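thread: overnight batch results

M.L. [08:02]
morning all. the overnight job finished for the chain we discussed friday. pasting input first so we're all looking at the same thing
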Amino acid sequence: MNRNELIASIAKNAKLNKKQAGAALQATLDSIGDAMKKGQKVALVGFGTFGTAVRKARKGINPKTKQIINIAKKRIPKFKPGKQLKTLVSKLK
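M.L. [08:03]
and the structure it wrote out:
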């Protein structure tokens, strides 16, 4: 499912037009992104939790030159699925 298909599904299920559904989806994604930018978690009970983690600095190898390089630490997005989502997906064949 791509973004347009998701917007169409939201519009149908919430009885909105596509413009309203698109605005609602964008507002939701912006709110989740803003919270994560501040280092906060966003917990949607049953669906999952969006958060961030810090990946430690480490040494790596450039595959082209085989030289050792330093990889800086950085903050990465994380998602932990909720119980209901795990159950729903596990029933797929």
